[in-house]
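Hi everyone, sorry if this is the wrong subforum. Our group has a chain we'd like a structural model of before ordering constructs, and none of us has done structure prediction before. Sequence below.
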Amino acid sequence: MEATTTGQFGGRLSAVLYLLCGTLLVVAVPLVPAGPEANRAGMFGLGVVALGSGAVIWFLPWYRWRRASTLVLLLPTFVLIALFNLAAGNDGFRYAPFFFITFGWLGLVHPRGTSAAAVPLAAVAYLVPLAAGDAWTANAAWSIVYVLPAGVLLGEATAWVSDRLRRTQHSLREREVSFRKLFLENPQPMWVFDIEDYRFLEVNAAAIAHYGYSREEFLAMRVIDIRPPADVPAFLDEIATVDDLHYSPMAWRHVLKDGRIIEVAVTAHRLEFKGRAAMLSAIQDVTERNGLERELRHRAFHDALTELANRSLFANRLEHALARQARDGGAIGVIVLDLDGFKTVNDSLGHSVGDQLLFAVGERLLAAVRPGDTVARLGGDEFAILLEDEPTIDQVVEHAERIVNCLSLPFELAGKTLVVTASAGVTLNRPGDGPDELTRNADMAMYLAKHDGKACVRRYEPSLHHAALDRLELEADLRRALDRDELVVHYQPTVQLRDRAIKGFEALVRWQHPRRGLLGPMEFIPLAEETGMITDIGRWVLVTACRQARVWQQRYQRDLTIAVNVSARQLRDARLVDDVRDALAESELAPQHLTLEITESVLMDNSDAAIARLHELKALGIRLAIDDFGTGYSSLNYLRALPVDIVKIDKVFIDGVASDSESRGLIRAILSMADTLDLQAVAEGVESLDQALRLEQLGSSLVQGYYYAQPLSVAAVDALMTTGGIPGPDPATPTSARESTLLR
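Answer:
Right subforum, don't worry. Here is the predicted structure as tokens:
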């Protein structure tokens, strides 16, 4: 039992008071004057008795008995006080302090009310000596009126303060026990280190298990010993500025016992530990998360095939170059190249050889430019080069001609010798040109080179308006397309990988142009985005898709879902929420059967407004999907904040799933992340059985792509649904051949 609940504290305190009072009497009696009726020998003897009693009381086993057991000392205490009164000649001023000491002891040791309960015994001890010593006078008797109440007041006040202190001490002790339990049993690595010498003072089991050091090894080390030497100065600088609670903005590196280096996030808190200024640190291993985010960031700004900069990174670097040029002077050149006849290589030798050719072209371009220049793949077989500090257009043309000649040299690929040529357009920035204008001007010049016979270089001239005129004509036709019912919606199935069951469709708009034929979305949607027509087109697609989905639900008695793409301009449109609500009401489609797809880049470019609009849409009961996931850059913490239900893994990851272990690792990480965040994952762009088998092995459940079905007209969907859905693999393909793809 603790000292506060046993008699140990009260007994020891009583012994100390006895010894002090006895010493006081033994020393003071011979020295201090006494009244004529005082018995000095008796007073001295009482001092000796008090000393002896104190010694006996000290050695009694109070720790075995409850606190209340010390109340037995009240009777002998008051007896000694009464005897002292007689020996002192009933001099109240001499023995009244002993009453106050007694009541103070009661307050320190015992609960409130004990002092009041002891009043009768104290009164007897006060009055009896008066009567026995023949000193009973009105004045002496009435002195009890202020002596005892004062003693009780002292005892009760002391008891109240003592009780408060006792409760506080108990609360602190409980908190300390809880803290130690939380610290020691926490699954997150934690430790305490001395702020002065950085030595570990305590570590928990999770830290021991994660870092590989034993507790003894930890306690013999300093916290800087688990850091690479290069990180120590920055760590010491940060420690010097840490407040009471601190979350480090840096991703620190720690060294495990086996030599591996991990990245960690650290939350630190200043505290006092065993009387020393210390720091409590909670460690989170973010190595895997940071690696995934770095890989996603790299993929967001680099072409997956060639590892060159992609269009986004090229535009970003071009923007920065223009800013530097405006500040420091100079000129900026842009070259856009397109391979001549690349489609023939793909069609004759296959996409694999085509991909190898694109990779080899990227390597050759990098070798042909200066270290500070930027080479990017804009898409397909189109490349761009940013040249800084080019004083004249003639020098840019010279660079482009040298690069075109370099590309005309033979390529040795797949046991074959390939010769390709390239057409290039060049431009030099003019006042007011932005990144888009520069790239567009070089692109227009490149198309002029194509028109002039290919394998040549052309420079941009302001007179190149044929492309602009064509664009104006296309824009005028697009403005009339809705009124003329030229737009149609095709539907691509979303398939359950396990049994090839159709779970829903994605609505994809097409334009049946009266002269140009059926145009895909890439041929007119960017123009619709730029001109603002996408809002009306998107509204029409939404209503049409909801109606058709409801028709199919009723016709085939299945809860088929429909997914509709939402553009950046639509997401910014304040009418979008009402448009969705109206489309659901008009079609009688249940909200949970409608999914709106928004690309990751749209969310990042307009994050605050986009998130607010997504929450409004989510309140309608619909589902939300992030399209092309992985092609933009969003952190996992950002993704957790979005009200989304589905992530659609971009085709760029799916392309390499059958043959590239890195792509498989990324897909596995994305699927794991989606499962952790309770999101549904859809793999889009599946084009082969190998890809489908590998995705099934990785745990993907929903897929979409040309391997299962291309975007279909309404009639084609009805025919597909009537004949039983998506067919299985070709029975002529041996099972062993299908399974062998999983062993690559």
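For your construct planning: Residues 186-285 form a domain with the Beta-Lactamase fold (CATH 3.30.450.20). Residues 144-185 form the longest helix (42 residues).
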